[in-house]
Design goal:
The structure is a single chain. This protein is α+β, with helices and mostly antiparallel strands. The protein folds into two domains: 216 residues, Enolpyruvate transferase domain (UDP-n-acetylglucosamine1-carboxyvinyl-transferase, Chain), CATH 3.65.10; 206 residues, UDP-n-acetylglucosamine1-carboxyvinyl-transferase, Chain, CATH 3.65.10.10. Helix content is 27%, strand content 23%. The chain has twelve helices and 21 strands. The chain has a four-stranded mixed sheet with strand order 2-15-17-16. It has a four-stranded mixed sheet with strand order 4-5-3-14. The chain has a four-stranded mixed sheet with strand order 6-7-9-8. The longest helix is centred in the first third of the chain and has 13 residues. The protein starts with 39 loop residues before the first strand and ends with a helix. The chain binds shikimate-3-phosphate (S3P) and phosphoenolpyruvate. The site of shikimate-3-phosphate has 10 residues, from helix 5.
């Protein structure tokens, strides 16, 4: 199947095709959201039971498409996440010359080779996806082409200065909107310069942007990571044949990549996304009588923080059939209902569960006693300000929550259901994780929880609602 014909729920206009356009396209905001919001009330639930399989890992899916598009030959990918974010990456890679097609259950990618990206003839519509935007800016930074990036209302508020800064040092030029935001136009360097860059924020996206720029930069590009973040780029770049080294020096990770790399096509099996499994881990934990197996969940240590934190709170999560899938540790998780106790969450664990805090706050709202989280400033620059959005949504549902500068303090019910939202709708702010977290809160409430818009769920986990409805049928 050609990606232009896959079912993209928002009806987003994705850039299509190639052409002989010399001028970069005009800067304009993306018109990517459907006009009508799609509200839904998530009602109290009976136990979650049986076996489910969540969607493919979003981070690995993005990187499979990007690296496949840079390898010469055919990369084959199974288990690719077919969410809107990954489809935005696929469309952008096609617009720059790669072939990305679905044949049966498999995605086939024919790459252009490192250095071979072509100038896109239309703006690259990144939709809601920060990962697509920042990693592609990295790729483009060392290709002498000009491109315009646009995004939806949420993405257009997110900071891009964090990648503009190192990529400018490599030699790329940027014309962003005020505040270093989208829409943004960039021109990659003619002769990119290898840099050594110490990450000022714990961000796998910034790390990956610099490493990807390094692929087409003669010499050695170095990223120093004081706090480890998800390491899929490092694992996959090695898998594709790049010369990449990781060393521990004085407690920091020093990552080097040798430029003018030749990438070899791969066969990739994408494991299930732990960030999607998280909603079901918490749902089965807080709904009485639940006993659910979530199959094929990626448990890369740089991603598995939530499992550890939930266990510290008293959750019963068993790892069955531990194995390796595509170079990543994977297991089936058996999750049974268990009473939770509030804890102080170690801020050091934050990068390994950065997308899981919205649903952790829901677990905390049902726990006995107080849960304190700190060091979560990064949550304020995701698809929404996730600290403020979850404080408002949980308060509307009857939870006791206090917002601090860098976290939430949650006083749990001790297992009693939340009141729910009888005549209000919680605001999701175009943020898929707020929508799914509050759906889970609805299961453990008296009146249910109504979320104002379920459309953003399709960015990362299109099958979330049918899976949830099926598990509690
Ligand atoms: O590299 C990636 O695939 C991602 C990195 C994280 O973002 P940051 O790098 O901004 O922390 C995460 O929140 C995002 O969902 C995916
Ligand atoms: C932050 C997220 O994604 P992105 O930055 O790719 O928009 C997320 O999926 O929670």
């Amino acid at each position: 199947m050609d990606i232009r014909r896959t079912g993209i729920k928002s009806g987003r206009a994705l850039p299509q095709g190639m052409g002989a356009v010399k001028e970069p396209p005009p800067m304009q905001a993306s018109t990517s959201q459907q006009d009508q919001a799609s509200p839904r009330r998530f009602l109290p639930s009976g136990p979650l039971r049986g076996r489910i399989r969540v969607a493919g890992d979003k981070s690995i899916s993005h990187r499979s498409v990007m690296l496949g598009a840079l390898a010469v030959g055919e990369t084959r990918v199974t288990g690719l996440l077919e969410g809107e974010d990954v489809m935005a990456t696929a469309a952008a890679m096609r617009a720059m010359g790669a072939q990305v097609d679905k044949v049966g259950d498999e995605w086939r990618i024919h790459g252009v080779g490192v250095g071979g990206l072509l100038q896109p003839q239309t703006a690259l519509d990144m939709g809601n996806s920060g990962t697509s935007t920042r990693l592609l800016m990295g790729l483009l930074a060392s290709h002498a082409i000009t491109a315009t990036f646009t995004g939806d209302a949420s993405l257009s508020k997110r900071p891009m200065g964090r990648v503009i800064e190192p990529l400018s040092r490599i030699g790329a030029q940027f014309t962003p909107s005020p505040g270093g935001r989208l829409p943004l136009m960039m021109t990659g360097a003619n002769v990119p310069v290898p840099i050594e860059y110490r990450l000022p924020v714990a961000s796998a996206q910034v790390k990956s942007a610099v490493l990807l720029a390094g692929l087409n930069t003669a010499g050695i590009t170095t990223v120093i990571e004081p706090v480890p973040t998800r390491d899929h780029s490092e694992r996959m770049l090695r898998g594709f044949g790049a010369e990449l080294e990781v060393e521990e020096v004085g407690g920091e990770r020093v990552i080097t990549v040798r430029g003018e790399a030749d990438l070899r096509p791969q066969t990739i099996e994408v494991p299930g996304d732990p960030s999607s499994a998280a909603f079901f881990m918490v749902a089965a934990t807080i709904v009485e009588g639940s006993d659910l197996v979530i199959e094929n969940v990626g448990l890369n240590p740089t991603r598995a923080g939530l499992v550890e934190v939930l266990r510290q709170m008293g959750a019963q999560i068993e790892e069955l059939h531990r194995r390796d899938v595509g170079g990543e540790p994977v297991a089936d998780l058996r999750v049974r209902h268990a009473p939770l106790t509030g804890i102080e969450v170690d801020p050091a664990v934050a990068p390994s569960m950065i997308d899981e805090f919205p649903v952790l706050f829901v677990a905390a709202a049902l726990a006995q006693g107080r849960t304190v989280t700190r060091g979560l400033e990064e949550l304020r620059v995701k698809e929404s300000d996730r600290i403020a959005a979850m404080a408002a949504a949980l308060t509307a549902a009857g939870a006791r929550v206090e917002e601090t500068e860098d976290g939430l303090i949650v006083d749990g019910t001790g297992g009693e259901p939340l009141r729910g939202t009888s005549n209000a709708r919680v605001k999701t702010h175009l943020d898929h994780r707020i929508a799914m977290a509050m759906a889970v809160a609805g299961l453990a409430s008296k009146d249910g929880v109504e979320v104002d818009d379920t459309r953003p769920i399709a960015t990362s986990f299109p099958a979330f609602e049918p899976l949830l409805d099926g598990a509690r049928a």
